[in-house]
Amino acid sequence: MGILVDGVWHEESDHGGKDAAGRFIRTDSIFRNWVTADGSPGPTGEGGFKAEPGRYHLYVALACPWAHRTVIYRALKRLGGAISMSIVEPLHRDNGWEFADSGIAHTPGATRDELHGARYMYEVYTRAVPKYSGRSTVPVLWDKRTGTVVNNESSEIIRMFNVAFDQWAERGLDLYPAAMRAEIDKLNAVIYETVNNGVYRCGFAAGQQAYEEGFDSLFRTLDELEARLGRNRYLLGERITEADWRLFPTLVRFDAAYHGAFKCNLRRIADYPNLWNYTRELYQIPGIAETVDIEHIKRSYYSIARVNMNRIVPKGPLINFEAPHDRARLAAAA
After folding, report:
1. Do 126 and 182 fall within a single domain?
2. Could you tell me if residue 294 is inside a domain?
3. Are residues 14 and 80 in the same domain?
4. One of 64, 73, 211, 283 is an active-site residue; which one?
5. Residue-wise pLDDT tens for the chain (334 aa)?
6. Do 123 and 223 lie in a common domain?
7. N or C: which end of the chain has fewer CB within 10 A?
8. What is the CATH number of the domain that holds 246?
9. Among the options 73, 125, 132, 200, which is catalytic?
10. Residue 283: active-site member
């Protein structure tokens, strides 16, 4: 991956910053406006972005867990007809995320940028801000009317999708109910730091101590989640919430990518009875399997030269997300 500096692309190998001890530091997202039902400002940014069908476009990578969150919400809320979408190629190359017509071998599932005809994701950023400096990450929510990026922070995009488009979406599904928000936010903070970002703290650590810190906190939290899911069907009880869908993209990638490429190898998710059954239950919810592409995931993570110098993609492992799960037993017990 590389970075834009005053609108000019510069190649580099790092995927974020690091502190003096070699700990991976994730850079913050830059575009933080919100789409709201009436166009009023959201919790961050400015107003003027009103929810309308056909106005917004989502740029994603099927390999990326942060982008995967938004694809899941688009599917669950049935927003495919209201929000169009482009999918970049999975490979990490010198020009960053690339579209399917960029001259490389096409990966099934990747698309062209039908909106702008861009070859690379960074060109979408410079279309919004010609002198943009920063990383060209996904997801990106683009406003076709004003010709700019609305937001590139996944945690905010999913909350927009949860409520802003309800006039054209699945109204009965609220994944961030008011009565549960404090609980969701508290659990999200732990899971983000130690699991969602924790796998990256392992994979991109630049020192042994930094790696072991990330590794230990990752598996400590996975052990705690295993115990929690022995009591609850979902993370916060009998109702699926945002917390579940923020955890799922990491779990579904774990055995295929993080266990090997990022040296998160104490245990696989398949070695945790509750987490593994839970992962399969979420995968089998209608619409979710179509958002998961293990080939994109493996091609992406194993193409990162920093963690896999020869970029050889493993043929395994065999993972059967369609196998029956036992999560209904907890609902019956309750």
Report:
1. no
2. no
3. yes
4. 64
5. 789 999 999 986 455 566 777 776 767 778 999 999 999 999 999 999 999 999 999 999 999 999 999 999 999 999 999 999 999 999 988 899 999 986 666 899 999 999 999 999 999 999 999 999 999 999 999 999 999 999 999 999 999 999 999 999 988 999 999 999 999 999 999 999 999 999 999 999 999 999 999 999 999 999 999 999 999 999 999 999 999 999 999 999 999 999 999 999 999 999 999 999 999 999 999 999 999 999 999 999 999 998 999 999 999 999 999 999 999 988 777 6
6. no
7. C
8. 1.20.1050.10
9. 200
10. no
Number of domains observed in the structure of the chain: 2
Question: Catalytic site residue 200?
Answer: yes
Do 196 and 252 belong to one domain? Answer: yes
Question: Which domain covers residue 248, as residue numbers?
Answer: 178-287+322-333
SS3 of the chain: the string is CEEEECCEEEECCCCCEECCCCCEECCCCCCECCCECCCCCCCCCCCCCECCCCCEEEEECCCCHHHHHHHHHHHHCCCCCCEEEEECCCCCCCCCCECCCCCCCCCCCCCCCCCCCCCEHHHHHHHHCCCCCECCCCCEEEECCCCEEEECCHHHHHHHHHHCCHHHCCCCCCCCCHHHHHHHHHHHHHHHHHHHCHHHHHHCCCCHHHHHHHHHHHHHHHHHHHHHHHHCCECCECCCCHHHHHHHHHHHHHHHHHHHHCCCCCCCHHHCHHHHHHHHHHHCCCCCHHHCCHHHHHHHHCCCCCCCCCCCCCCCCCCCCCCCCCCHHHHHHC
